[in-house]
Structures
1.
Amino acid sequence: MTAIGSVAIIGSGVAGLAAGIQLAKAGVKVDLYEAKPEISALGSGISLQGNALRVFDALGVWEDIRDAGYIFEGLNLRAPGPGAPIVASLPDVKSGGPDYPAAMGMPRANLTRILLDHAERAGVHVHFGAKVTGLEQQADSVELVLESGSAGVFDLVIGADGLNSTVRGLIGIDTKPVPNGMGIWRTFVSRPAEVERSELYYGGPVFIAGYTPTGEDSMYAFLVEKAQDRTGLDDAAASQIMIDESRAYGGPWNAIRADLEQGAHANYTWFTSHLVPAPWNRGRVVIIGDAAHSCPPTIAQGAAQGLEDAFVLTEFLVKADALDDAFWDAFHARRIPRVQAVVEASSQLAQWQLDGNRDADAGGLIFGIAQKMALPA
Ligand SMILES: Cc1cc2nc3c(=O)[nH]c(=O)nc-3n(C[C@H](O)[C@H](O)[C@H](O)COP(=O)(O)OP(=O)(O)OC[C@H]3O[C@@H](n4cnc5c(N)ncnc54)[C@H](O)[C@@H]3O)c2cc1C
């Protein structure tokens, strides 16, 4: 018998939707509140590693995810220059264990659509255009307040409301994402046939240039630069920066530049990192996903860690008799050391780039983390 009958989840990102699916399947009444009026049909792509795929399988969504993206093994490193020679092909690191591919890429919009479909089919009541502004905790319940007024009273509130989490602030946690000094340009383009896995270019005018296939006809490409104020640029100016900064890279970058010249959209954001120390809950309100932690995407683990948070929390919830200190201690003991390892490794890789340290053992660091992730979340 579970200790909770009703849950409000804030945020329709991967963490919120994954939590909703598992709770609704277990018979819990779930209401999910999302500030945006609808899910975004736009956006770039995402790399999902084996440990994320293992969570999708446990949620019953893996087959749909698998069919909507591009599965690949290994990672190529290429050098700048006209021929973009492949200088190393790194072997598979199966962070989800032997039953799942090492990684896949997919358009973010497909991922959200699939998770939302499964959540609604499982019985999650999804409320779009519902911005959370307040919380009132009682001994055994929480009242949730939206811009439009009270949303009702719940046994538990899960704040999966991302980097700039409102819920985090409402429960008095002041740890926040801190920019790490890097910014990333991303664009969603067509996939040249020769791109069959993620490829990274170190060296040249930016810290990292790269791309990841997301489907037969699509991939996302990115350039990581020193963080700059890139606000106020129109679409053409943004695309032109990607064209100019990528000129040092040949091979598939020629096709990427051609797509940018044809109007492929370029977007820009800064890297951040943070990790909220235990506890992630205050009473019956808890934060997970980017609300609780973020890291530079140097090992592409941010969403995977949010998925694991959601899975472990809801697995505990459906078995719990009480939401007492022992419950929360067990949750934090499972999640925080693992997230901390990812945040530290991702940040260290980024810092090596910022410091221009070319002798660093990046491969060893990535391999070590992937081995850790292959153990259950
Ligand atoms: C450049 C970049 C590349 C990345 N690449 C990868 C990658 O390849 N692989 C990977 O695993 N991770 C990657 N990540 C990390 C990944 O994108 C995030 O960790 C993940 O998307 C966070 O999911 P989330 O569900 O925690 O939050 P979000 O996806 O941010 O969802 C939060 C939701 O909450 C809603 N919300 C916010 N406030 C309120 C409110 N007050 N009321 C109601 N709703 C609210 C928001 O509108 C939003 O929809 C990358 C990150 C960056 C910056």
2.
Amino acid sequence: MTLTNWAGNTAFRARDVHHPTSLDELRRLVAASPRVRALGSGHSFNDVADTTGDLVVLDRMPDEVEIDSAAAKARVPARMTYARLAPLLNERGLALANMASLPHISVAGSVATGTHGSGDKIPGLAAAVSAVDLVTADGSTLTLARGDADFPGAVVALGALGVVTSLTLDLVPAFEVRQYVREGLSTDALADFDEIMASGYSVSLFTDWRETRVWLKRTEELTSPDWYGTRPADRPRHPLPTMPADSCTLQLGVPGPWHERLPHFRPDFEPSGAGDELQSELILPREHAVKALRELYAIGERIRPVLQISEVRTIAADDLWLSPFHGRDSVGIHFTWVKDLSGVLPVLELVEETLTPFDPRPHWGKLFTRWPSCPERFRSLVETLDPAGKFGNDFTRILLGE
Ligand SMILES: Cc1cc2nc3c(=O)[nH]c(=O)nc-3n(C[C@H](O)[C@H](O)[C@H](O)COP(=O)(O)OP(=O)(O)OC[C@H]3O[C@@H](n4cnc5c(N)ncnc54)[C@H](O)[C@@H]3O)c2cc1C
């Protein structure tokens, strides 16, 4: 059976798929293979994880998490999902600062593409990484830790430097969150974008570029009944207004642990309509948010026919070379498209064209047509660690200009 990504729009071309059960087996496999790449949980929407050689899935490697409560750190196996990791941390009174909308994604795959949640003060998931353990091209092991010169190139690295075997993550004390959905945000309220996005620990706007709802994840109760002219949702909501909300984390302001509120989707359910979508996301400097959003509302009629829903989030800057948030506080404008690539592509191109004046960067794990330039220091790091390009694929070759 052909192995595909979650959405089924990429069929992996690997000649073999391997599931090593130990570090030694993985090292031998990587050393012997002329072309190899790791696959996480396969949730990216493009061919970033593909290879024509050997695809390595680390789902049978030892999966113990080493938690150091005193240092507030955890060393996590690369293929572990956030869904599995989060309750283990919570049981020890610890938490991740943030999570993505879906907890089913692997830690290594998520940080490799710059995956993020929302929150003015919270950077992407990769910024929580303080050390990366890798198997490099000749089968040797390498640890790069925060403070090492090459570390900022090794976290959001698109699988191009080697196979990551574990990641050490910064933790915070466990905390409670209340999730509210507010409906009927008027486009006039965009003038208050900064205040709206600052009014929760994690805030998302969901819009079809006509009607807009706000998902507010707060550590405190929301008491204002007519918050920014909106009304409270009278029942739990799915990000897609027509879908049932049974796959969604608990809303209506009921307090609960961080990992049961920060993701939009529950770990024990796939989102409704799982896989029946394509996604794109463009990440802009935060200061352009309102102007850029107004441009998109103005072309909403062109976007809507191929759109399921858009989500707008804010993300704090980091210093990771390939991160879409490198050096700038950002706004992420996300598009969940219908699963019709030929219909979506011209609209995606229109969106990219519209946002070009605002210097957008693409989400590495989603669909895009305009490639950003590759930082020279990342190119040098790839040449140093993988001189024969065994971890390279079509995706990284375009990025590296090969
Ligand atoms: C329903 C859905 C919701 C999503 N929600 C969000 C969201 O809220 N926020 C967001 O930012 N993104 C989101 N995404 C995108 C998703 O987070 C990214 O595509 C992410 O990369 C998925 O992780 P993965 O483990 O599936 O990675 P994969 O797609 O399997 O791989 C991604 C990259 O990581 C590399 N990789 C994986 N494992 C390793 C390893 N061990 N060593 C070296 N390289 C490795 C692969 O080679 C590839 O280059 C969503 C996707 C879906 C399908």
